[in-house]
Amino acid sequence: MVPELSLALIESLPKTDLHVHLDGSLRLETIIDLASQQGVSLPSTDPSKLFSMLYAGDVCNSLDDYLKGFDITLSVLQTEEGLERAAFELAEDAWNEGVWFIEVRYSPMLHMQRGLRLTQIVEAVLRGLRRAKTDFGIRYGVILCGIRSMNVENSLRMAELAVAYKNRGVVGFDLAGSEVNNPAKEHMVAFQLILDNNINCTAHAGEAFGPDSIAQAIHKCGAHRIGHGTRLREDGELLNYVNDHRIPLEVCPSSNLQTKAAKSWAAHPVDFYVDYGIRVTINTDNRLITDTTVSKELWLCHKHYGWSLEQIKEIVIAGFKSAFLPYREKVDLLQKVTARLDEIQVPSNGKLLDTRTPTPSVDYHDTGLVEPRGEAASQAAPSTDITR
Length: 388
Ligand SMILES: [Zn+2]
Hints:
By secondary structure, the protein is an alpha/beta fold. The protein has 16 helices and 8 strands. It has one domain: Metal-dependent hydrolases (TIM Barrel, Alpha-Beta Barrel). The chain has an 8-stranded parallel beta sheet with strand order 1-2-3-4-5-6-7-8. The protein is globular. Residues 19, 21, 176, 204, 227, 285 line the site of zinc ion (ZN).
């Protein structure tokens, strides 16, 4: 049994959000406001009705289903004002729940419906994030996304944009979108341009498709991190490769449950990954569509898996270690983070986590997943050793 942690305590921890989509993370009232300013018609202007159309919740059956809400959010993200405001507010919301470093991702080519040029789009988002940094102190990076279901020329345009804005706010490249029938290797040339320019990259993989997709992202596209990696557990060799090379997983638990990448909290592999020593980071994916925050995701893991404060601190540190930041900047930031983490201790009210809360007993055979093997990683105290 571990001491029970409140959501407020987890909000007080410095955190990262390395996997969050701009177009899935707007404030509901901002969508309504922007639509009226821009003369965009929404399926409903009633906040609760609109939310029910956007929120993936339990009615969502697949990743493709989950992606439907984006038609609505994208409809109000076709102007510079809309993009700047959305980026600023996303950073503000993240800051208000203790996120010290955020990597905001989006695909500029999806914001050209009203004639904006790609550079105007990128600049508008950067303006919003810069303003948030000035106002609050939150640090940020931008990841530009290619889309799996679109052709490679489009991905290449996004990669070229990342090259142009390298060291100007853009810190990485990603491949997002529907995984089934859209293999990452078809976008290899875009990744090659990114790698040739020494830029970081990640790819959504192993979410709606099996471990082959993760292997392609790593071995064919050179991905430095993996978005989700939910099905990595099905391939023991690859699992160990990812672990041995310390390739971070950008895990977004609630989103995975909504897209049905995992059937339940008990069947989700994240607790096993943490136990096995994989470098796990916990992220939101889409703050509006999944209705979440990083703090909420960590708190839910605490509730479902019994993660202790010390374990949560380690995961938080893994987030900072995995950030697409220059090494020395990362070391400086980690020193500040660990100093702050040391100040936050388990509350002395002595309340223990209610063990009647569903605790996972994963049947690896039942879920068709491989059994964990090897020794569980040792639970070392948080440290600024960046290699672990
Ligand atoms: Zn995502």
